[in-house]
Amino acid sequence: MEARKMKTVKLSNGVEVPILGFGTFQITDLVEAENAVRDAIQAGYRHIDTAQSYLNEEAVGKGIATSGVDRKDLFVTTKIWVENVSYDGVKASFERSLTRLGLDYIDLLLIHQPYSDVYGAWRAMEELQKDGKVRAIGVSNFGVDRAVDLAEFNDVTPQMNQIEINPFQQQVTNVDALKAEGIMVEAWAPFAEGKNDIFHNEILGSIGKKYNKSIAQVILRWLVERDIVVLAKSTKPERMQQNLDVFNFELTEEDKKQIATLNDGESQFFSHADPEMIKWMASRKLGV
Fold first, then answer.
1. Among 215, 220, 223, which Cα is nearest to 199's?
2. C-alpha torsion sign, points 271, 155, 94, 10
3. Is 272 annotated as a binding residue?
4. Which among 42, 65, 36 has a CA at the least distance from the CA of 232?
5. Cys staple from 162: which of 51, 140, 207, 232, with CB 3.0 to 4.6 Å?
């Protein structure tokens, strides 16, 4: 797929984001991560997502550098890990992330989890954006109430919220509420990491057969039609190409109604309100 065919969405500050992004979560082998990012860009991806906690920013940067695509044509996201969520923590760790990535600026910087001193962190991120080091700022895994709270007591409303969205956790009400506040929504784990045998789901499979598309392509198309930015991950070039090939068909209203029946309205992973999960993330010191 040629990059020019990629659909983009516009954030509240006018920054355009390629709607399909390449995710690098759990690509922990650094050689594999570098190769995957390079292959993804060469396949047509122009949006690359990483995070401090993935411990692969340096490899991602190398993949970008060797891709043969100009930096200005790429949209790069990274995220501030919990131990760095404070004013000083953001300022220091952001510079380390820039160095690891080998970049002069970041397109989108997110607070990775809704814990610790998010308000101090946000003030630092507002300054980084004002100084041109970051083009857009946002959050990840924030409930609508937490995102609105952050917006109301600061100068800048989060421009993105990256949350779990997949056929089993469709987040319809939350997506609508976030968009009403001017906050773009981005989906992580669109395939629910294979849970509930998603790649053999009868409903998704039958929809795919109508269009000669895979279940993964049906899911990505479903999210694209909702104007939700979506991250897909694969280390296989042929799968990367397939995941990008979703702009030549449209789902019917009946297709969407069938997909809606799959929603059970619960996270397929864990609750961000679980005290034990909060304690675990607070204890996870990565030194990034």
1. 215
2. positive
3. no
4. 36
5. 140
54 in catalytic set: yes
Average predicted confidence (pLDDT) for the chain: 97
What pLDDT, in 10s, does the model give residues 242-278?
Answer: 999 999 999 999 999 999 999 999 999 999 999 999 9
| Helices assigned H by DSSP within 17-141 | 30-43, 57-65, 87-101, 118-130
Instruction: Quickly name the fold that domain 3-283 has.
Output: TIM Barrel (3.20.20)
Q: Nearest Cα to 38, choosing from 20, 65, 56, 58?
A: 65
Alpha-carbon distances of 220 from 92, 171, 189, 237, 276, rounded to whole Å? 36, 15, 11, 17, 32
- The CA distance from 17 to 9, in Å, is 5
Domain segments of the chain as ranges: 3-283
**Which residue is catalytic, options 54, 87, 119, 211?**
54
User: Would you say 185 and 156 are in contact if contact means Cβ atoms under 8 Å apart?
Assistant: no
For residue range 198-233, what is the model confidence (pLDDT) as tens digits? 999 999 999 999 999 999 999 999 999 999 999 999
C-alpha closest to that of 154 among 112, 124, 114, 111: 124
Identify which of 90, 92, 96, 98 has the alpha carbon closest to the alpha carbon of residue 116: 90
